[in-house]
Design goal:
Family (chains A, B): Belongs to the peptidase M20A family.
Mean pLDDT of chain A: 92
Distance between the termini of chain A: 26 Å
Low-confidence stretches of chain A: 94-103
CATH class of the largest domain in chain A: Alpha Beta
Structural class of chain A: alpha/beta
Keywords (chains A, B): Hydrolase
Order of helices and strands of chain A: HHEEEHEHHHEHEEEHEEEHEEHEHEH
GO molecular function (chains A, B): hydrolase activity, acting on carbon-nitrogen (but not peptide) bonds, in linear amidines
Strand content of chain A: 15-25%
Oligomer: homodimer
Protein name (chains A, B): N-carbamoyl-L-amino-acid hydrolase
Chain lengths: ~450, ~450
């Protein structure tokens, strides 16, 4: 059988995806998921994944951050694996004290589709006795959501970082109950010995299938997104400090109300992004020190999420926002102050032409040139990290109504299968080019 | 001994207050308190209070809201009790995920001083074998803070309300764990049979000693506040509704960001109160449906607390705030909406001249006319409710730096003793006037 005629089994893929979601992390009476990294549910689905991969004859390595590498050998003894991957953890259910929305609950496709599709590719190669030139690997990256241990794309970040301290720092990060990542890795049996370092456990290239999480493919009637880059991002954890006071006994002009100042800053984040047209800026998380309606808040914390097409635009938007903050604080008469508690960021990630070409030709072969589009990812992904150190690219399939991180997150079984088929063919085409010495 | 020479025992009062706080609800390494209504700590201090009052020969009645009435008989068989009271519950420790402040923790004086002082008055009457004309009662009102079961001054409100449904409604209110007030009353043994109704379990009058919780007495170098009224208050629980979205993939102009709109409304609450000079308005509580930094918030809820000297001013300030809200929503381009989920309120409470006079003359006798001042209370108190149906007034003593609902809440032992002494003499003066047929 010619490799280009090889087809994944869409029914098997979708059945595997849905049944494992139903078994491990499903929310009762909902298609929503709550599968926090290294939770009992995550441990169970990981154990299942390892069993499945071993049954296909793969070698399985667990690294120091719990990343699972399942490797199917190729003909060549000296090539690194062409990898496919994503993550099996999901968003949590957020605290919802008063309202009844389900927002903040994870869906069944974000991350999960990418790993399940990689498994389906391995199954297809195995049942057809395909011998690739390079090894082919499946990767499940730990804690991509950063929902349990703060810090999205954490473990792919450690693997891709030229830093001796990143691993140690991430092992020490605690969840809300105070459990460290290291303890959670130990407790689940996923604190592996393989170095979490691209230099010691390397890859030839990396392909990631993911749902778009936005409305563009659907709106333009395209079926596959050929992802060329991930936009640059920066986050700031902010604190506004005021002075506590009783709401009934403290005169307005004597107040130092942290929430009033925070409110002006939050409005300014949105206004500045709109006025400059540089990119998007969002405050998605806010917490107040007080939970008493009769108390003037003394401290409010919030996180600003800034994303633009290029790193320079990210810098310009950040500068404009903080300039506006300084003006607001100067004009405020309530004697509050603000500070930046912590910053994170992920520079703009430009994918590799060879990988992009493999995805594009695989997609064209499946649906023709009129149903695919090149696009940049607005969301961060593990591939954004891997692209810093190995050739990488991504495949997007449509998200119904552009919704994700929500039980309403949905991608049709046909699109899931299409994504897996494009993934298979992209890997095979890339492998073929290596065999022929085209990419090297 | 002439009644006017009678003196409370300040050392005993302060020792009783501090030791019971240390035993039931103290926070380790802090003077802060966490004694939520009908918690294990509250049950213990209530049991202690009942034992102490019975040891002084008082009859103890528990009503349907768990209010404790400890009654010391007087000479007259047909008079209702002159009551003294406040509450033994405190503010909770609020959730503090990131910051390290202690704000939101209760102190040792708010409410607690009023009940302890009432007990000290009973002890003083008992040890001096004083026979009053009217019975004298101590009252511990349940859930004044509204910190466990939402709704401040809840049980004094039920007692003072001409409504057959208030009791049932309050019994059904749930705490954060879903426990109803009725269940908590049953579990602690404080679901009494005495009707929680001023018409069936009435009082002759009501006096409440409380810390000021504001800076005025200290700033003016006065020692006693003669409280003539409690300002009018109104609360609105608000919800702003938008549409969820991914922070990286949703363009600014397509967003419906609930937090951005909420931020504009919160700033407007403060700005409107300052611009109109009608009173004070505060947003002390804010919650968002989402806890993900990568999510555009779809729902934000907050509580507005509005207080003015008169009910008419409260109405005017509310009208001005909501007019501004409508303008903001109209000008917003992000397609959000707001709704009022619930309102509460406590109309302006004007205390009774006879009770005010008794407090004033008792205070003048203790510290002279230059060390007392008439004042309105900015905070709500159980006396605000009782004043709707029986003659009532309050005594304020200084709060250090005006701080309360905080471990830094402090009133000197001397001022605590002074407050109790004024309470004793106000009750005796009022009793004397009843005996003499002056107040009737």
């Amino acid at each position: 059988m010619s490799h280009s005629a090889l087809r994944i089994n869409g029914q098997r893929l979708n059945s595997s995806l849905q049944s494992t979601c139903s078994s491990w992390g499903a929310i009762t009476n909902s298609t929503g998921m709550r599968r926090l990294a290294l939770s009992e549910e995550d441990r169970s689905v990981r154990d299942w994944l390892v069993r499945e991969c071993k049954a296909l004859g793969c070698r399985v390595k667990i690294d120091q951050m719990g990343n699972i590498f399942a490797i199917r050998d190729g003909a060549s003894q000296d090539k690194l694996p062409i990898a496919m991957g994503s993550h099996l953890d999901t968003q949590p259910a957020g605290p919802r004290k008063i309202s009844n929305t389900d927002w903040g609950i994870g869906g069944r496709y974000d991350g999960i589709l990418g790993v399940q599709a990689a498994l389906e590719v391995l199954r297809t190669l195995h049942e057809n006795n395909i011998q690739t030139h390079c090894p082919v690997a499946l990767i499940d990256w730990t804690n991509e959501e950063g929902a349990r241990f703060p810090g999205a794309m954490m473990a792919s970040g450690v693997w891709s970082t030229k830093s001796s301290t990143a691993l140690e720092a991430c092992h020490g990060i605690k969840d809300m109950e105070g459990t460290t990542m290291q303890k959670a890795l130990e407790d689940t049996g996923y604190l592996g010995k393989t170095p979490c370092d691209y230099r010691e456990n390397g890859l030839e290239s990396y392909f990631e299938l993911h749902i778009e999480q936005g409305p563009k493919l659907e709106a333009t009637n395209n079926r596959v997104g050929v992802v060329t880059a991930v936009q640059g991002m920066k986050w700031y954890a902010m604190r506004v400090s005021g002075v506590e006071g009783h709401s009934g006994t403290t005169p307005m002009h004597q107040r130092s109300d942290a929430l009033v100042t925070a409110a002006r800053l939050i409005a300014a984040v949105s206004d500045t992004a709109q006025a400059t047209s540089l990119g998007v800026a969002t405050v998605g998380v806010i917490t107040s020190d007080t939970q008493s309606q009769a108390t003037i808040p003394s401290g409010v914390e919030f996180i600003i999420d800034i994303r633009c097409s290029t790193d320079a635009m990210v810098e310009d938007l950040c500068t404009a926002i903080f300039k506006r903050f300084d003006e607001i604080i100067l004009n405020e008469k309530n004697n509050t102050s603000y500070s930046v508690l912590r910053t994170w960021g992920l520079p703009e990630s430009i994918f590799h032409d060879d990988c992009i070409s493999a995805v594009r030709s695989a997609a064209v072969a499946e649906v023709g040139p009129s149903k695919i589009m090149d696009m940049k990812s607005g969301a961060g992904h593990d591939a954004a990290w891997t692209s810093k150190v190995v050739r990488s690219s991504m495949i997007f399939v449509p998200s119904k109504d552009g919704i994700s991180h929500n039980p309403a997150e949905y991608t049709t079984p046909e699109d899931c299968a299409l994504g897996a088929q494009v993934l298979l063919q992209a890997v095979l085409r890339y492998d073929e080019s290596i065999r022929n010495g085209i990419n090297s």
